[in-house]
Amino acid sequence: MDKLSRAGLEIGLPDGWDGRIYQRQAEAGVTTRRAMHAANFPLPPNLGDYATVAVDAMQAGDMLVTLIEFDPASAGAGLFATDGMPTALGADAFSPSAMPKAVPGRTASQTFFSSGGRAFCLYIVLGSHNDRAAMLPMVNAVVGTIKIDG
After folding, report:
1. Phi/psi class of residue 7: alpha, beta or left (left: φ > 0; alpha: ψ in -120 to 50)?
2. What pLDDT is stored for residue 27 in this prediction?
3. What is the pLDDT of residue 117?
4. Is the distance from CB of 41 to CB of 56 less than 8 angstroms?
5. Which helix (H) or strand (E) holds 115?
């Protein structure tokens, strides 16, 4: 398993997985944010935070794990009130309606939380809603490797 580490984020990538961590360029008056993408298929360039380009190209057995950082002022409040990232997701955490844009057959999970005074969304997309239970052991293993520095 390869480790990918940058900008206070780390993830273990199983053989055959692709990943990247980036920090957006600063713009006037905008706080830069970090995003991490990991997938069991090759990630296309210029994904965007929610990796919509990759989601559109996913096949039935594909898995995409995305971690997106939000304004630290949001940490511990509202959507981000939960302390700590989930360690394991069940099949009931996934729904086609959790996707920003509906794609037939796909399913997603969005979990908002805070860690070390930072606010995050763990967004996971699976290529098949019907096969999600079979995909979860691998997804949960990858999510279990994520480390966030405070």
Report:
1. left
2. 60
3. 92
4. no
5. strand 107-115
| pTM for the model | 0.92
138/88 Cα distance (integer angstroms): 11
CA-only gyration radius of the chain, Å: 15
In this structure, which amino acid lies at residue 137? P
Cβ proximity of 95 and 107 under 8 Å: yes
Express each pLDDT in 89-148 by its tens digit.
999 999 999 988 888 899 999 999 999 999 999 999 999 999 999 999 999 999 999 999
The residue with tokens 């057959």 is: 105
The mean pLDDT of 65-94, rounded to a whole number, is 94
CATH number of 50's domain: 3.40.1000
The count of structural domains within the chain is 1
Domain range enclosing 131: 2-24+31-148
Give the helix ranges, DSSP H, for the chain.
52-57, 132-143
